[in-house]
Amino acid sequence: MSVSRRRFIQSVGAGSAVLSADFISGRGHEAQAFELAAMQPPDDGGFIRIDSNENPRGPGRSAIEAIRNATTARMGRGYAPDHVMEFYTTVASIYGVERTHVIAATGSGPILDATTRAYCAMDKPLVTAAPTFTNCEQTARRMGVPVKVVPVDKSLGLDVDAMAAAAQGAGLVFFCNPNNPTGTAHGAATVEKFIRGLAASSPGTKILVDEAYIDYAHDPAVKTMAALAKELPSVIVARTFSKAHGMAGLRLGYALGQPETLRAVSNAWGLGSLGTLTAAAGTASLRDTAHMAEERAENARIRDFTLQAFRDMGFEGTNANTNCVFIDIKRPAKDFRDACAAQKVRVGRDFPPFEKSHTRITLGTMDEMKQAVAVFRKVLTASPSSRAQ
Ligand SMILES: Cc1ncc(COP(=O)(O)O)c(C=O)c1O
Question: At residue 34, does pLDDT exceed 60?
């Protein structure tokens, strides 16, 4: 055990209810290469869990070290914790914006909810895609406001032209780039043209660009819309620490936008308040660009392995810019999912309108994917009669 790891465990207490491996990690599972290795992994009941776009490697070393260093008596002074302000200023400096251009939340989920509540109404529909991440749609439906759902195009990418047409007079457009679950991504020129076009033709319509997976984008044309969030009152960019930063269990996300635009979001719905340790870890992780490069490379290696394994079996996936792959398995997702679950591999839910043909598989560790691929091969090559059993 490394000295730093031993000190960390001594300082927080291994298995402590307050700082369990589960709590501090993205998932904490199979994290041998990382500081979490000596802590108790969560019991997944023997399942390989590749159904929720979590990160099996958890946070990087510097984030864990930041948690260790922030674990002091000062945690008793939580109402104006140093690390929270530092988190805001770090985000602002990365994007060259003021502190007032940033709001933070306990994950980006609350930001999506709040933005929908701030900008949608009976006469201001939500425009979203299918399939895409459904937080905004679910919130809009709970509010009882109209939702216009625009199917993805033939390449399974967001149909930018159809979304622009549907968005005239809308309250909010949810634009997930890269898109979950399809993994497709639009380059900056396309997204910027879409945003500027909409700002001109429907100036009252807000655009929420969800960049949850952008750290994984391998297409160099894919870029953050942060600069447009600073420039235009209609743009909000949402980011999360639940994916490449490996901190789903810590709950941290933020949004960028003009102060007025963000004020309406903050006033619409509770965003939660950041804890000292979360803020310290988030700040350290943002600064650790070397770790992010490693994380991106590891995800790409596992994605390429997984896509190639499906290709070898005769099934194609999209060119994923995410930590999940979306595969045309030529059969209902539920049948595949149930057959995999029977062999202790959990894969994604149904994603209409592709529930009869496609499955979403989150990328686990390379070891997990090797085991999972063996199960996929068994399930996908089973004869129809044995499949029915
Ligand atoms: C596209 C997208 N946005 C936002 C989220 C929410 O992430 P969190 O609330 O954990 O930050 C997710 C989670 O899966 C996601 O896929």
Answer: no
